[in-house]
Design a protein that fits this description.
This protein is mostly helical. The protein folds into two domains: 30 residues; 99 residues, Orthogonal Bundle (Helix Hairpins). Helices cover 69% and strands 5% of the residues. The chain has a two-stranded antiparallel sheet. Helix 3 packs across helix 4 and helix 3 runs antiparallel to helix 5. The longest helix has 27 residues. It is globular. The relative contact order is 0.13.
Length: 131
């Protein structure tokens, strides 16, 4: 049953995205699929890059703690670090993993990049539509 619901939800989201970009009122607005793909690839690359930085930092000691009262050290598997990197660049910050030590600086830097890159994409798209 859950597979059906997930599939139906994905189809619903896809149909809404198609409607958004195919709708006549948005055809006059500027959307560059090349620019969007470039932003996606850059965000993905930065996410993987920071996860490697976190992995290297984790070789020297704890860099992530579980966001509970006891604050136990988190598992430093690469997939856990990749998850933390993805949550950080998207500025979601669930709070389930908390950076400590040197990782705090890199988490701030990554979150800043995660906010500034889409802003730069929007500004570039707007300046391109004025031409």
């Amino acid at each position: 049953m859950s597979t059906f619901l997930i599939s139906a939800t994905i189809i619903f989201i896809g149909a809404n995205l198609y409607y958004f970009f195919a709708n006549e009122s948005y055809k006059k607005s500027y959307f560059s699929s090349v620019l969007f793909l470039k932003l996606f690839i850059i965000l993905l690359s930065v996410t993987f890059g920071f996860s490697i930085i976190y992995y290297i930092l984790s070789l020297d000691g704890d860099i992530l703690r579980v966001g509970t009262i006891d604050g136990a050290p988190a598992d430093h598997s690469y997939f856990n670090l990749l998850y933390f990197s993805g949550v950080t660049i998207l500025s979601v910050g669930y709070g389930d993993l908390i950076p400590v030590g040197g990782a705090r600086f890199f988490a701030l830097l990554e979150a800043s990049i995660g906010i500034l890159l889409p802003t730069a994409y929007f500004m570039k798209a707007m300046s391109s539509s004025d031409k």
